[in-house]
Structure formats: C-alpha cells, structure tokens
Amino acid sequence: MKKKIFIAVISLIVFYSAYYYWQNRYVELRPVIPAEENHTRKIIFFDNDLYKFAEPNEISPSYYKNIKWILDGSRVDYIEKNGIIYVRNKFLDDMNMVWNYTNRAISTEYFELEKKRDSTHLIYEKKCADLRRKKIESILKTIKTDSIKFHDDHKK
User: Fold this and answer.
1) Beta pairing partners, 78
2) Which of 2, 52, 104, 133 is buried most, with the most CB atoms less than 10 Å from its CB?
C-alpha cells in the first residue's frame, strides 16, 4: 500500500514538474492574426480557435521593430537572441492577448496615443514636482524658524 502511494506521489511530482517546465520555457514570439480561412460557421469552444500564427510575409515589417516597445510597456518577460524575441510559453496560451500586442505594434493610432499620454504624464509630473518642491521649501522654512526659536528659548 505504501509503495502505491509513493509511486502516485512521485508521479504527481514528475507531471507537475514537466508541466511547470513546459509553461515557463522560452519560445519564439510570433505575431498572431485572425484565422479567416474558411467562412463557414462553426462552433468555437476556445478563443484561440479564432486566431493563427502569422507567417513573416503576412505581417508588417514594423511589427518586428516595435514589439519590444510593446512588451516593455506591458512588463512582459522576454529574451532577445540574435534579433529573435523569446517569451515564456504560457504567454502564448492567450492568443487574444498576443493578437492585441500584434495590433499595437503595427498601429499608428496606438503610438499617437502613447505620445499624447507621455506628454500629459510629463505635464502631470512637472506639476507634482513643483508641488513637492514647494512643500519641501515650506518644511525647510518651518524647520529653520523652529530651530531658531528653540535655540533662542534655550539661551534665555
């Protein structure tokens, strides 16, 4: 009986380790496009059935130039080797998200929005820095006046 339990536990550990390795290994990031091959209506059980991996000639060359910007902005772990970007395999499980990143990488509208967002953020940061500087100056002024009063009171 103990032997069967031991074998079962070891098997679970081995299967979990294999699954963990499979999900966390790095694979090449490939762009995703909608799968519109056949226009017949069919039952879709998973969102991934709506997409397919694009061939290099099916996607704009700007994708390969801009995808690092998108991944950095989304805080996705990736490795770049010889100009090829590798992401964790579990990242590719959600093809809807990868399709969204593909669209962002080739969209001029997205980069225009990012440009506007950056300029708005810089204005906000400048206001915050100005407010912070004023607050620090008032604190320093208070400290100076309090220390002068403190020293004057102790001299008496």
Assistant:
1) 87
2) 104
How far, in Å, CA of 126 to CA of 1, rounded?
70
As given in the structure block, the two tokens for residue 112 are: 């225009």
Q: Which residues pair with 34 in a beta bridge?
A: 51
**Residue 147 token pair:** 């220390």
- At position 29, the amino acid (one-letter code) is L
User: Which helix (H) or strand (E) covers residue 108, if one does?
Assistant: helix 108-155
Beta bridge partners of 80: 85
Taking phi over 0 as left and psi of -120 to 50 as alpha, with beta for the rest, 37 belongs to alpha
| Buried-exposed string 54-88: b where 16+ CB fall within 10 A, e elsewhere | beeeebeeebbebbeebbeeeebeeeeeeeebbbb
pTM to 2 decimal places: 0.63
Q: Which residue has the tokens 């772990």?
A: 77
> What are the pLDDT digits (tens) for 59-69?
888 888 888 88
- The structure tokens listed for 90 are 């579990």
